[in-house]
Design a protein that fits this description.
Layout: H1 3-8, E1 11-14, E2 17-20, E3 31-35, E4 41-45, E5 54-57, E6 60-63, E7 67-69, E8 74-79, E9 82-87, E10 93-95, E11 113-120, E12 127-135, E13 147-155, E14 162-173, E15 176-189, E16 194-196, E17 200-201, E18 207-217, E19 222-228, E20 231-241, E21 246-254, E22 267-277, E23 287-290, E24 298-303, E25 309-314, H2 319-339, H3 352-380
Parallel strand pairs: 7-16, 8-20
Antiparallel strand pairs: 1-2, 3-4, 5-6, 8-9, 9-10, 11-21, 11-23, 12-18, 12-22, 13-14, 13-21, 14-15, 15-16, 15-17, 18-19, 19-20, 22-25, 24-25
Helix pairs in contact: 2-3
Length: 381
C-alpha cells in the first residue's frame, strides 16, 4: 500500500473500534441514519415525526397547534361549536389558529387515568360548585421522564365534550414544568383542543383547594370558572359550553417505568369535597375505578358526604396492609395445621377428643383468618 493510499484511508478510533476515515461520517442536526435498498447505511434528512409535534396535557398527547395558553383577563367562549378567545375587558372575540385540527388521532379523555372516583349528577339540578382540597405530596423517590397529574374535575360526555380541571402536575407538560410540582387550570376537549392558564410552582406540604363554579347560564350554554383558591393566575373562565355534570377525583400518569416513579408516599387524600346543586348539598355516592393496578394503585371512598367528603388515591399497597395480610395468612396456615396434623406437629394424636377439639379450633382459626383477610382487602381497595 503506497503513501497516498495510506493517507486516504487513515485509521481513526470509534466507540466500535478502529475504522477507516472512509467508514466514518458526521451526522448533522436534522439528519438521520437509514438503510438503502442494498442494506447499506446512508445519511438522510430526518423527517418531522408526529411525536415531535405532540405535547402532553391532562387529556393525553395533543398536537401542539391545538394547545393554547390562556392569559389572565381572557376567557374561552364557545360559538357554533368552536372555541374562541374572549377578552373580558373589551369583549373582543378572536379565533384560534388550529392548523392541525382533524389531522392527529385524538386520545379519549381519561386515557392516561390510573385510578379515580366519580359521581354523576342525576339530581336534575345543575352543579353550582365543586371543590376539593389536597396536600402536595413529596416528590417521587425515582425521577425520570414521568408526568403525574392529580386533580378534581368536572365534565360532560357525548358528542363534543370537555373536562374542566384545576391540575397539580409533576414533570413536563404542554404548560411547562419540570422535576417539581406546579399547578394550573385546564380545559381539554374531545375535539383535540386543550387550554391552560399560567403554571405556578408549589412545594410539597402545600395545601391546595381546587374549585370549579357555575357563574351563569342561558339558553345557549353554561359559564364556569376553574381555579386554585388563592392563586388568581390559575383562574380559567369557560363560557357558553354544555352543562358539566360528571365529577371526578383523579390520578393520571404517563411514562411510569417503576413504582418509585410515583410520589414517595402511600396515597393522596382528596378531602373536604364540597358539591352543591343550586343552593343544596345533594346526596351523592362516589364510585371507585382502578384502571391500572400494577403497583397496587387504587381509589378508596372514605366519605360520601357532599359537604365534607373524602376520596383517597393510593399509589401502592401500604406496608401496614402487607403486614396485616401476612398475619391473617399465618392464621389460616395455623388453622390448616390444626385440621390436618402431621408428624411432630401432631400433639393431640392418639386422643380422639383432643383431635376433634383441634380440628374444631382449626376450622374456627381459618374462618377468622379468611374473614380478617376479606375485611382488610375491602378497606384497602
Amino acid at each position: 500500500m503506497d503513501e497516498h493510499q495510506n493517507e486516504k484511508e487513515k485509521i481513526v478510533i470509534t466507540p466500535g473500534g478502529p475504522r477507516s476515515t472512509k467508514q466514518t461520517q458526521l451526522v448533522r442536526e436534522g439528519e438521520a441514519v437509514s438503510m438503502n435498498e442494498k442494506n447499506e447505511p446512508i445519511i438522510i434528512q430526518k423527517p418531522t415525526t408526529m411525536s415531535e409535534e405532540m405535547v402532553l396535557t391532562p387529556g393525553g398527547f395533543r398536537h401542539r397547534s391545538l394547545v393554547h395558553k390562556i392569559e389572565s383577563g381572557h376567557a374561552l367562549h364557545i360559538e357554533a361549536g368552536r372555541v374562541r378567545l374572549k377578552n373580558l375587558s373589551s369583549g373582543i372575540v378572536s379565533e384560534f389558529a388550529d392548523a392541525a385540527l382533524g389531522k392527529p388521532v385524538v386520545p379519549a379523555l381519561g386515557s392516561g387515568w390510573i385510578a379515580y372516583g366519580y359521581w354523576n349528577n342525576g339530581t336534575g339540578k345543575s352543579i353550582t360548585s365543586f371543590s376539593s382540597s389536597w396536600i402536595v405530596p413529596p416528590p417521587p423517590s425515582v425521577q425520570s421522564s414521568q408526568v403525574i397529574f392529580l386533580f378534581n374535575g368536572i365534565q360532560n360526555y357525548g358528542a363534543n365534550y370537555g373536562i374542566l380541571q384545576p391540575v397539580l402536575q409533576w414533570g413536563v407538560s404542554a404548560a411547562g414544568g419540570g422535576a417539581y410540582w406546579s399547578i394550573a387550570s385546564w380545559y381539554v376537549t374531545s375535539g383535540g383542543q386543550a387550554f391552560f392558564t399560567n403554571l405556578v410552582n408549589v412545594n410539597p406540604g402545600d395545601n391546595l383547594i381546587g374549585v370549579m363554579k357555575l357563574t351563569g347560564s342561558s339558553a345557549s350554554g353554561f359559564n364556569y370558572t376553574s381555579e386554585f383558591q388563592g392563586v388568581p393566575s390559575t383562574i380559567l373562565p369557560v363560557q357558553n359550553i354544555a352543562e358539566l355534570f360528571w365529577c371526578n377525583e383523579t390520578l393520571e400518569a404517563y411514562s411510569i417505568d417503576t413504582c418509585s416513579n410515583y410520589p414517595n408516599t402511600d396515597f393522596t387524600a382528596f378531602r373536604n369535597i364540597n358539591i352543591q346543586t343550586g343552593t343544596e348539598s345533594p346526596v351523592i355516592s362516589w364510585t371507585p375505578v382502578n384502571r391500572i393496578t400494577d403497583c397496587g394503585q387504587h381509589a378508596v371512598i372514605v366519605d360520601n358526604s357532599s359537604q365534607n367528603g373524602e376520596v383517597d388515591i393510593y399509589y401502592r399497597i401500604p406496608k401496614r396492609f402487607k403486614t396485616i395480610y401476612l398475619a391473617w395468612a399465618w392464621l389460616i396456615l395455623v388453622g390448616y395445621i390444626l385440621i390436618t396434623p402431621i408428624g411432630p406437629i401432631c400433639i393431640t394424636c392418639g386422643n380422639p377428643l383432643s383431635e376433634l377439639g383441634s380440628r374444631i379450633l382449626g376450622f374456627v382459626t381459618i374462618a377468622v383468618g379468611i374473614l380478617g383477610l376479606a375485611r382488610s382487602t375491602r378497606r384497602s381497595a
